[in-house]
Amino acid sequence: MIEQEMAALRKLEKDLVDDGLKRNDRAHALINACINEGIDSGPGIIAALISLGYNGKHAGIMLSTNIQREPVWPNWGRRDCGQYFAPEMLADVN
What we know:
It is built from 4 helices and 2 strands; from the N terminus they run H-H-H-H-E-E. The longest helix is centred in the N-terminal third of the chain and has 16 residues, at 3-18. It has one domain. It has helices spanning 3-18, 23-36, 42-51, 56-65, and strands spanning 77-78, 84-85. The termini are far apart. By secondary structure, the protein is mainly alpha-helical. Helix 1 runs antiparallel to helix 2 (23-36) and helix 3 (42-51) packs across helix 4.
């Protein structure tokens, strides 16, 4: 992992904690952030969450239980090659 990506993830984790999000919600957001930062392999995502203080087994369970065949934000999908991807966020049209 590149230090710049991890710095962005550490900042996001701090911001999520400051906003009062529960740990599971933070892990969900961090998985999406990993994918967005180009950390899109299962082992890479789990390693990133472990480095942020999350339990690796728990991170793996969250990663696998939130896979969708045709993902809808904020969940993700996984290609046949094992690469994870997140759908585009819908812009607020109000």
